[in-house]
Design a protein that fits this description.
- With about 400 residues, this protein is an alpha/beta fold.
- It has 2 domains: about 1-185 and about 300-390, Aminopeptidase (3-Layer(aba) Sandwich); about 185-300, Alpha-Beta Plaits (2-Layer Sandwich).
- Helices cover about 35% and strands about 25% of the residues.
- The chain contains 9 helices and 16 strands.
- It has helices at about 1-25, 35-45, 105-120, 145-150, 210-230, 265-285, 305-320, 340, 375-390, and strands at about 50-55, 60-65, 75-80, 130-135, 160-175, 175-180, 180-185, 185-195, 200, 235-245, 250, 255-265, 290-300, 305, 325-330, 345-355.
- Strands 1-2-4-3-5-16-6-15 form an 8-stranded mixed beta sheet, sandwiched between helices. A 4-stranded antiparallel beta sheet has the order 10-12-8-13, with helices on one face. Strands 7-14 form a two-stranded antiparallel sheet.
- Strand 1 (about 50-55) and strand 2 (about 60-65) form a beta hairpin.
- Helix 2 runs parallel beside helix 3 (about 105-120).
- The radius of gyration is 24 Å and the shape is elongated.
- The two termini are about 15 Å apart.
Length: about 400
C-alpha cells in the first residue's frame, strides 16, 4: 500500500501542483468560496467520488467507501478560504482577485486533500471502512466554518472515529512533518469595550470624565488578570490591539473604543478569565466615573490533539517518509477552527513544512509575500492518503 500511494502521489503531483496554482490565482474570502467549491465539485465528479455540496454554504462532504464500509470511518479536512490581503509576489499564479490572497496556505491544504481523495478512490478496494472528506469554508472568519459544518451534520452519518487535518508551516523545510499531542493551539476570543463619559475641554478635566485616562488605566489593569490569576504553566495571552478615541489636541472625547484578543490553552481558565475581564473593566470604569459596555465574542476553542490518534499518525507518517522527515512541533497561541472538530471526535492536526531558505521561500503566513515550496504537495497528498488507509 505504501509503495502504491508513493507512486500515485509522485505521478499526480504535477496535476495537483497545477490545481494549487489555479486555486491560488482565484482566491475567495470566507464564506464566499463559490468558484472554489464549484471547481472542487467538478474535480470530484471527474474522479468518480460521490459528494454532497451546500454544507455551511459552500462546503462539500465526499465519501469514499472501501471494503466493509461500516467498519470504521476516518475524516480528512481541508479549508478553502483566503484572506483580505493584496499579494506582493510576482509569480505566474499571482492572485487575480484584487485585495484577496491565499496567504495562509489553504490552497495547499485543499490541493493535498483533493489529491489524497483521488488516490484513495483508486485504492478503495484495498482498504476497509469509509473515508469522509470535508472541504470546509470560512476558517478565517468568526464563527468558523467548522462550527457550522458540525451543526449541519458533517460529523454524522457516518460519524468519524478520527479526523485528520494539516496546515502549512513556512519555517519548516518543505516535505517535513511536525506533530504535537495534547493541547496544541489556543482558543481565541474577541474583546470589544466602549468607555463613555461626559467629554469637554482638555483645560477643564475636572468637569469631564476623562475617557482616555480610563481606557489607559484599563489597558494596563487588564494585563494583571493574566499575570496574577492564570497558572503560569498554562500559556495565556490578552492583547489590546485597537485604542480609538479623540479627534484633536484639546478635547476630551465622550467615547473611547478598545478591541483585543484573549487566548488560552485551558477551557476552564478561558471562561473564568472572561468573568475576570468583565469584572475588572466594569470596576475600573465605575471607580473613575465612566460608563462601560463590554462584549466578549466567544471564538474558536482550544485545539486538542488526541494522544492516541496523534501517536499513531506520527508513527504512520514516519513509516511513510522516514524518521528524518518527521518530528515534534511547538505549541502555538494562534487559533484554528479545526479545534471545533477536535472537541467532538479524536483528532490530529499536524504541520506540513513548506519553506525553502535557499530559494527565499521564508515569508510567514498572513503576509503579502507568503508562498510555498510546491514539492510539499506530493508529500502532503501522499501522507494524508497513507494515514487514512492505515487508520
Amino acid at each position: 500500500m505504501k509503495n502504491r500511494i508513493k507512486a500515485l502521489a509522485k505521478a499526480y503531483a504535477p496535476d495537483f501542483t497545477a490545481i494549487r496554482r489555479h486555486l491560488h490565482s482565484h482566491p475567495e474570502l470566507s464564506f464566499q468560496e463559490f468558484e472554489t467549491s464549484a471547481f472542487i465539485q467538478q474535480k470530484l465528479t471527474e474522479f468518480g467520488v460521490p459528494f454532497q455540496a451546500g454544507i455551511a454554504g459552500t462546503g462539500i462532504i465526499a465519501l469514499i467507501a472501501g471494503k466493509n464500509p461500516t467498519s470504521k470511518t476516518i475524516a480528512l479536512r481541508a479549508d478553502m478560504d483566503a484572506l483580505p490581503i493584496t499579494e506582493a509576489n510576482e509569480v505566474s499564479y499571482k492572485s487575480t482577485n484584487p485585495g484577496v490572497m491565499h496567504a495562509c496556505g489553504h490552497d495547499v491544504h485543499t490541493s493535498c486533500v483533493l489529491g489524497a481523495t483521488k488516490i484513495l478512490n483508486e485504492l478503495k478496494d484495498q482498504f476497509e471502512g469509509t473515508i469522509k472528506v470535508l472541504f470546509q469554508p470560512g476558517e478565517e472568519k468568526h464563527p468558523g466554518g467548522a462550527s457550522i459544518m458540525i451543526e449541519e451534520g458533517a460529523l454524522d452519518n457516518p460519524r468519524p472515529d478520527a479526523i485528520l487535518g494539516l496546515h502549512v508551516h513556512p519555517t519548516m523545510e518543505a516535505g517535513k512533518l511536525g506533530f504535537h499531542a495534547g493541547k496544541y493551539m489556543a482558543s481565541a476570543d474577541e474583546i470589544y469595550i466602549t468607555i463613555k463619559g461626559k467629554g469637554g475641554h482638555a483645560a477643564q478635566p475636572h468637569l469631564t470624565v476623562d475617557t482616555i485616562l480610563v481606557a489607559s488605566q484599563l489597558v494596563v489593569s487588564l494585563q494583571q488578570i493574566i499575570s496574577r490569576n492564570n497558572n503560569p504553566f498554562s500559556p495565556s495571552v490578552l492583547s489590546i490591539c485597537a485604542f480609538n478615541g479623540g479627534f484633536t489636541t484639546n478635547v476630551i472625547p465622550s467615547e473611547v473604543k478598545l478591541m483585543g484578543t484573549f487566548r488560552a490553552m485551558d477551557e476552564t481558565w478561558r471562561f473564568k478569565a472572561h468573568e475576570l475581564i468583565r469584572k475588572q473593566a466594569i470596576g475600573v470604569a465605575e471607580a473613575m466615573g465612566a460608563e462601560i459596555d463590554i462584549e466578549i465574542l466567544v471564538g474558536y476553542p482550544t485545539l486538542y490533539n488526541n494522544e492516541e490518534v496523534t501517536a499513531k499518525a506520527e508513527g504512520f507518517a514516519t513509516d511513510y517518509l522516514g524518521t528524518a522527515f518527521v518530528g515534534d512541533t511547538e505549541i502555538r497561541m494562534g487559533a484554528e477552527d479545526f479545534a471545533f472538530y477536535s472537541q467532538v471526535v479524536p483528532a490530529c492536526f499536524f504541520r506540513l513544512g513548506t519553506g525553502n531558505v535557499a530559494r527565499g521561500i521564508t515569508s510567514g503566513v498572513h503576509t503579502p509575500t507568503f508562498d510555498v515550496d510546491e514539492q510539499a504537495i506530493e508529500v502532503g497528498m501522499g501522507t494524508m492518503a497513507y494515514l487514512a488507509t492505515q487508520f
